[in-house]
Amino acid sequence: MHWNRLLGARGPAAAVAAAALLGGVLSGPTAQAGPRNERLTDLVNPFIGTQNEGNTYPGASVPFGMVQLSPDTGHNTGYDYEDKQIRGFSSVHLSGVGCGLGGDLPVLPTTGDITTTDYAQYASEFSHDDEKASPGYYKVGLKTYGVTAELTATQRTGVQRYTFPATGKANVLLNAGQSLHSAVSTSVEILDSRTVRTAITGRGFCQDTKPYTVYTITRFDRPFKTSGTWNGDKVTEGSKASTGTGRNGAWLRFDTTGDRTVEATTALSYVDARGAAGNLRAEGRHGFDRTADAARATWEDRLGDVQAKGGSEDLRRTFYSSLYRSFLAPNIGSDTDGRYTGWDQKTHRAKGFTYYQNWSLWDTYRTQAQLLSLLAPHESRDMALSVLKIDEESGWLPKWGYGTVETNIMTGDPVTPFLTNAYQQGLLKGHEERTYRALKKNADGVPPAESAAVGREANVPYLKDGYAPYIKGRPHAKPGDSDYDHGASATLEYALSDAMLGEMARDLGHDKDAERYAGRAQNYRKIFDESTGFFRARDAAGAFTGPADPAKSEGFHEGTAWQYQWLVPQDLPGMVGLIGGKAAANERLDSFFAYDKLLADPAKTAREVWVNGPYDYYNADKYNPQNEPDLIAPYTYLSTGQPWKSTDVVHAALTLFTDTPTGMTGNDDLGTMSAWNVLSSIGVFPIQPGTDTWGLSTPVFERVDLKLDRRYYPSGKFTVTAPGTSDTDRYIQSARIDGKNHAATYLTTEEIRSGRSLSFTVGDKPSGWGTAASAAPPALR
To answer: Which of 320, 350, 319, 345 is nearest to 334 (CA)?
Structure first.
């Protein structure tokens, strides 16, 4: 089998690039492009975000792979840089999630007798001095046992190599019963002297969910000399099977007095044991070194679609690390034979596409979905088709999907801008009406009681009164978050989605629907409190409720009225009018970003004024660059006649991304924050999520060459240049597309598709570029 197919088959991918690490003041490029033979994978630091609740993982995976083989240290999401022990190397992780999820089948090599079955007790000490990670590869020394462990991966398998001391008691522990989620039941079977099979049923993500099952098969490169299983505290040598709840697993013993290395390859399937065995046959028989080399080559190819020139090594490392994290999810859910488990818990077969799973849509619809539509349009198409399959098979579109189940975490209607983005980017040709039908059902209804989904939970009052009421403490009918607990922000999210669906309806000729959705897109006005000048939650009777102080507002999910003020991308002119016009809006924006302080010291302002802690979402009147609700806020200046301030704010926020374990802003949320970094740094950002509109700001690299997928972008490339961009020369003086003046502060996907270059002239002072009323991004109709 060809390695490209094995490790991450894809068509030629487009890529949007650039990221920034800026010191005390904004620092631009100080060097030329990297060395001619530079490997981009050497610039990636998988440890970025592994400390201070960034919740990334440092282990091995390939782009969008089903397997993310990584160490678990005791943190609820897997790995924390400050921890001192490793409990095991498990096969499933998600980058930047906020709650425990995955961690299935932690495997750990040990030596000596088996004295405990609790991985918190048999965990090994480790040191960062003896740890290394790069795309597709991880290595660490396990001090407690004198073992060196190495990890690599294909799409559906993880490969571990252990170098033991010379001993007759070299063990490998496969712990089926402990993970990052709540295990419902597990089974372990030792099939022969080299093979172990498991089935793990788990549940839970932030709150309780329906269970899912993942099947594994692990094959060793040589026979073990003895083995056994455990259930609870009972360890039974010679036992071939164990089933039950609680701690349940298998142990295998090797003699390493001669040959000290042992390799283990684990294949996953969310379908059945046969699927895992098929994935192992297809992808798991090439040995550690060949697999690791191929994983690196796959990442090199993926990252190589973006060639960023200029910048310090730290700048380039921060950029390519963000680019890497942007490709970690969603994840392949179908087996090599095309079978997958749908949300109806039945087996289906993907025909003509690859099935994907893991949908953090409330996060990713704002940045990562758009980035992937440029970097990986063919995969993005398959991802959108996978979401449509969820609707067909379960009866409803997803909100936050993990594996084969809905979790209903987060609120609003994020699936609509996710799918309308795919449509607007030209990824759903031949599936337009199918997509529209699913979105219309979702936008106009509420899932029935028997459905696991909550959908637009507050849709009945929203459609009747124009707002989702805030009903504090309302009992939840289903697990997950409730839109009624966050009525104000749910109203804004619904209205945004209505606007995007209205655009799609108009394009497809559904004029009456388009008019109806466009009217609903104005519902943001229904929660505007003229007495405070801010959005405010309403109760079921229509009265404004909660503190009048917008910094202490209630009814906004993970944010305040200050931060949600700018979440009206469908009609910024209308929103600006509500708060008193452009002058009033600019004054409020300046206060929100602490603009005067920002100009004096951008990095200090970002860290000491904006940031209050990774989960401190409330009681704030300032920008929160660590969370999703106000990610588009810096670009509001494009609509208020002061576009240079967008650059100032964006570049200050970019200082929060560093080449350190703490170098993330909040949780990565399956690539959302990383994608914000990439897009903002290149100077092209999706300011109306769900459409094809991209706002412009000053790039931080002098040149970025993007190799585009000709199936979707006929030119095959797009180049962004900003000669001389630096900490002082950071203001756009003019912009050109293919040599022609471009006065607008935005461009469209069609301009990227039909053009070949976007060039900026920059200077040390703001200019008149983009300040005309006609230059601002237009409101949707």
So the answer is: 350
Determine if the peptide bond prior to 330 is cis (ω within 30°).
Answer: yes
Q: What type of residue is 169?
A: K
Closest C-alpha among 97, 60, 70, 43 to residue 672: 97
> Rounded to whole angstroms, how far apart are CA atoms 59 and 88?
12
Is residue 234, in this structure, part of any structural domain at all?
Answer: yes
Instruction: Render the burial of 401-431: b for 16+ CB within 10 Å, e for the rest.
Output: bbbbbbbbbbbbbbbbbbbbbbbbbbbbeeb
Question: How far out from the chain centre does Cα 689 lie?
Answer: 15
Please give the structure tokens belonging to residue 140.
Answer: 């660490």
Neighbours of 82 (CB within 10 A): 10
- Residue 70's domain comprises 62-303
What is the number of domains present in the chain? 1
User: Looking at the domain assignment, is residue 8 inside a domain?
Assistant: no
Q: Is the pLDDT of residue 325 over 70?
A: yes
Q: Tokens 């390519």 belong to which residue?
A: 320
Residue 223 dihedral angles phi and psi, to the nearest 5°:
-70, 145
**Higher confidence at residue 202 or residue 183?**
202
Assess contact for 727 and 28: CB atoms under 8 A. yes
The distance from CA 532 to its chain's CA centroid, rounded to whole angstroms, is 35
Q: What is the pLDDT of residues 618-632, one digit of tens each?
A: 999 999 999 999 999
Q: Say if strands 85-86 and 124-125 run parallel, antiparallel, or are unpaired.
A: antiparallel
The encoded tokens of residue 1 equal 């089998």
Nearest to 108 by CA among 286, 264, 284, 289: 264
d(CA 238, CA 585): 73
- Angle at which helix 313-326 crosses helix 288-303, to 10 degrees, equals 110
Q: What is the CA radius of gyration of the chain?
A: 26
353 vs 381: CA distance, rounded Å: 8
pTM (2 d.p.): 0.94
Look at the block and give the residue holding tokens 């799918």.
Answer: 419
Q: Could you read off the pLDDT of 340-392 as tens digits, one per residue?
A: 999 999 999 999 999 999 999 999 999 999 999 999 999 999 999 999 999 99
Looking at the domain assignment, is residue 352 inside a domain?
no
Lookup result for tokens 């309308």: 420
Measured CA angle at 308 (ends 58, 730), to 5 deg: 110
Which CATH number do you get for residue 207? 2.70.98.10
Three-state SS string over 429-498 comes to CCCHHHHHHHHHHHHHCCCCCCCCCCCCCCHHHHHHHCCCCCCCCCCCCCCCCCHHHHHHHHHHHHHHHH
Residue in 217, 213, 215, 171 with CA at minimum distance from that of residue 192: 217
